[in-house]
Amino acid sequence: MSRDAFQAGSPGASASGALLLCRAEPESVAPAAPLLHERMLLTRAGEEWSVLVPEGRPWRHGGEPVDRVLTGWAAALAGGAPWPVLALWWDADRAGYTLASGFRRPVGYVWLTDGTPAGESEAMRTFAARLGLDPVLDVQSLHALMEPDSEADARARLRGLLAVLTRVGVTLPAGLTPGEPADRLREVARVQADARRIEGAGWREAVRTGLDAVERGPLGPWLPWSGEPRARALALAQLAGGVPVTVWGVRRRSAGWIAAGALLLAYGAVGLAYEVVRPRD
Q: Which among 90, 155, 213, 262 has most CB atoms closer than 10 A?
């Protein structure tokens, strides 16, 4: 596949695009998505899955690499929610995915535009394990995506990945296909019966939303109002992790990582503040 073909007829940032798949119902994703401060469309993507279609301002107008933005966004969403987030992204030179789940390190894989694998097999195995894919049949299908194939370009690799994910319930609406122009993706999402428009929220609302999502998940006992001694440790860990993530994002002017780091700092600060002012037994 030529670079011009993957650019969908226009140069530069218009060649880039992304989809955010969340393993949750749209009702659960809608309150959390505004923390990314990006205009998006949200719709269902199969049984217990939703998809966010971003407008793409950071890479269309800010010149930031789409993979860096999506990695930060996926980490920010997954860090404040009990469900994993899978980012699919592509530009004129490459395509790939990033999977974020809780506070674990995100994993991902990359293909060059012509479909040449440029990732590590261990990342693909970790990806399969975190999503609960079949360790034999599904992993074999994923391994095929890491083999040389002159017939498969980057767009075909992402379609192959989505075909494997149908086994865990992913079904994107017709026309919502990786590699399509951003305007086309938004139009397809907009006409879905359950489509919702997502607008950015202020940081106070974002923190409240994120904490509410965490409270409903497995990290609930670690929150400050749970009364558990682990809550202070979590708040300190969030502060310790938020500082380098935010600095890293600022140095690279990465909107996604700045959002992830700022939210970690906010969560940690709220946790420590509550620990100080809450009544003692």
A: 90
